[in-house]
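Section 3.1: Structural characterization of target chains.
Under the original work plan, the team committed to producing a structural model for every single-chain target entering the pipeline before any wet-lab resources were allocated. The record below documents one such target. The sequence was received from the expression subgroup and is listed exactly as submitted; it comprises 363 residues.
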Amino acid sequence: MQRTSTIPPYASHTDSVQVVNNHIYDILGKEAIEFISKYVNIESRTTKILETSTRFNVDSLEDNSIRDFINIKKINQLRYLNKFLESVNNKLPFYGHFVGCVETAEQRKRSILAKYTKVLVYPYYTLDFIVKRVLPKVGVTKKVYFILTKGHNRVISLPETLGRLVSCGFEIIDHKEANNLTYFVAQKIAIPSYNMEPSYGPFFRMRRIGKDGKEIYVFKLRTMHPYSEYLQAYVYKMNNLQEGGKFKDDFRITTWGKLFRKLWLDELPMIVNWIIRDLKLVGVRPLSPHYLSLYRPALRVKRMKYKPGLIPPFYADMPKTLEEIMDSEEKYLDAYEKNPILTDIKYFYKAWVNIFLKRARSA
């Protein structure tokens, strides 16, 4: 297959090549090409097509020559993934498109289950999961893992992939599975957030709005894939809300995360926020900026007069829709303004009854 090189002097001659447009149809296949072509003109001179795993080959491209960028190398092969995405963002104009692909964790699992016999498949899958999905995200083993593997062929979930894109200044336009890979189209809408402290471990902090609009960070036990916090607006756009004010069909939640939520384990670390007085015992739920933006303006102003709470009025009233949740919080705040102590005692008791006697659960 003929390929023309665009490799700078410091890059590997086996790593990055400009793919001749006529051959990309053979490389990607009909289904992937049809998906990409809905958003990007593959034949355009302003569409740059590379097969690279290093950001240096992106940085070396001429400025102002690219409208859209396609990389046919799986992002599983990228050692410094966020740095790569930041370089792509830097080269694209606003509203320019970035197209890439990933072998998701679920796709890798299917591939392993289809490849090995029943005797070997689950021990192999368990080992693969630990080595290529857990070790790269644990501080003690992360450096060793990347020294040994150079970051190649690591396991990454779809939510983490899309969340990293959003954190690096992209809006998710679409994604589609083809040839046991997931192809995605993203559009540059902002500069990267340059998150220097990404959260991978079982415990993490979530940015929330506290009293007087102050930014606070509440502690949680992880129930979602890494970088899922960047996808809140995307999930809302795609799925809207279900009963209880949660997102419907939220693909960001892990299998074990669903269990943690049923058993209330994900909420326990927030006791630390109560101890350090970011939260009071009973009060409105601390919300993210996006979720808060869904509230009525007058209620947004009213709820920011007070500290959020560890136990929200939700568990006293058990509302089902966002409108009912807002009504519940407004009723609580009105009562709290008149008699704070008595109101919190009343709501604490009602929440205790619903949680421990009527078996209400975190969803």
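The two ends are 52 Å apart (CA to CA).
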